[in-house]
From TrEMBL:
Pfam families the UniProt entry points to: ROK (PF00480)
SUPFAM superfamilies attached to this UniProt entry: Actin-like ATPase domain (SSF53067), Winged helix' DNA-binding domain (SSF46785)
Source organism, top-level taxon: Bacteria
Species the sequence originates in: Streptomyces spongiae
Family: Belongs to the ROK (NagC/XylR) family.
Classification via InterPro entries: ATPase_NBD (IPR043129), ROK (IPR000600), WH-like_DNA-bd_sf (IPR036388), WH_DNA-bd_sf (IPR036390)
Protein name: ROK family transcriptional regulator
Length: 414
């Protein structure tokens, strides 16, 4: 059931989770029930079964039962919540110039976050090593033990084979192709790990933020241009090989001879990405003093209404709008979200994209479509990573793993 370090690795060897226990935990985690009586009423389980499962979860530290702060006459009611030692989630959003990292509790609440200043082209071992060190520092700073990490999720700025847990032939990421990122993270934290594309995580973060506003299509306009799609049922579409959403390499509608990193000419990425706009304006992407110099300088120029910067932004908006009009036909989303540093530069990009999409796409595809910038800003991918992590933690396998880690025996009653 466990390896030499005590980490439960093989799902087939984990104990079965009683249906009653999982139902009890689902109700508490979702907030639908906060007391034993409410659980019995909503689940239809016998009070004795509820009591047995609650006692087991409390004994393992997964749940805690405390007195409510406010009460009516008589004995204060007791409330069930996730225990503070139930576990921690560690997440990271790796980008071209730096990586954002955060830790969260199992409710999804971010406890601390930081930035690891390491370029993605430094290679997987350097990047994942720096990310891991920052996450371990955050765990120490917040008093969370590394042995209580339940899930690690990392987003990468390139195509990802989700099942294998590695990047697949990403542009501008030397050494990353096929590198076993999941194995690296699992070994470092002695916990399950997942690796996904950053645009997928951004889309999932936005979808969780705006519950019910799906299907949702999220476009990240950064060093490249990527798309993440979340279906009406909340599932991320990744494609057969992890290449779904790598839309920056579609040829621009207006045509161009600009050389792209993929070797083709005229890709939207080569004309309208954040990096492409910086190159057109002659702005260095980074400096020794400021790794995000380009981002900061472009914000300053647009805020000062520099005509060259505003024109470059509007041209990018036109190219991106043509691309998105096509994607609207393919996916018919309810909501279209613009993310990444280029989306944070005021209304010029958003209004330009809207104008092209509503002009090019037919009314049937746009009559209920909302086009907006990200609600979570640069934190969208981190929130998406947390959402992906909690789904895994509270799956049947995840719950079994928690029980195997915390207690020796699982009750057989249901």
């Amino acid at each position: 059931m466990r390896d030499s370090d005590g980490y439960a690795t093989d799902p087939a060897l984990l104990p079965a989770v009683p249906a009653g226990l999982r139902r009890v935990l689902d109700l508490v985690v979702s907030g639908e029930a906060t007391s034993r009586a409410e659980i019995a009423r909503r689940s239809g389980l016998a009070r004795s079964t509820v009591g047995q499962q609650v006692d087991h979860l409390v004994a393992g530290g997964i749940l805690q039962e405390i007195e409510a702060q406010k009460s009516v006459r008589g004995r204060p009611p007791r409330v069930l919540t996730l225990g503070p030692q139930a576990g921690t989630i560690a997440v990271a959003d790796v980008d071209a110039l730096a990586s954002r990292v955060a830790i969260a509790d199992l409710t999804g609440r971010i406890l601390a976050q930081d930035i690891a200043d390491v370029r993605v082209d430094a290679g997987p071992e350097a990047v994942l090593g720096a990310v891991s060190e920052r996450l371990l520092h955050l765990l120490e700073r917040t008093g969370r033990g590394p042995d209580r990490v339940r899930q690690v999720v990392v987003g990468l700025p390139g195509p990802v084979d989700f099942q294998r847990g590695c990047a697949v032939r990403p542009n501008g990421m030397p050494g990353w192709d096929g590198y076993p990122a999941v194995e690296f993270l699992s070994e470092r934290f002695r916990a399950p790990a997942l690796v996904d594309n950053d645009a997928n995580l951004m889309a999932l973060g936005e979808a969780v933020q705006e519950q019910g506003d799906t299907p949702l299509l999220c476009i990240k306009i950064g060093t490249g241009i990527g798309a993440g799609f979340v279906s009406a049922t909340g599932e991320v579409y990744r494609g057969a090989d992890g290449a779904a959403g790598d839309v920056g390499h579609i040829r621009a509608a207006g045509g161009s001879d600009a050389l792209c990193t993929c070797g083709n000419v005229g890709c939207v990425r080569a004309l309208a990405s954040h990096r492409a706009v910086l190159q057109q304006l002659g702005i260095p992407e980074s400096t020794d003093e400021d790794p995000l110099h380009g981002e900061h300088e472009l914000v300053r120029r647009v805020a000062n209404n520099d005509p060259h910067a505003v024109r470059a932004l509007r041209q990018a908006a036109t190219e991106i709008g043509e691309l998105l009009a096509m994607l609207v036909y393919v996916f018919n989303p309810r909501r279209l979200v613009l993310g990444g540093p280029l989306s944070e530069l005021g209304d010029d990009l958003l209004s330009g994209v809207r104008a092209v999409v509503y002009q090019r796409a037919l009314p049937l595809a746009t009559r209920d479509l909302t086009i907006t910038t990200t609600q979570l800003g640069s934190g969208s991918a981190l929130h998406g990573a947390i959402a992906l992590a909690t789904r895994d933690v509270f799956s049947a396998t995840g719950i079994a793993r928690m029980l195997a880690d915390d207690v020796e025996d699982v009750p057989v009653g249901s």
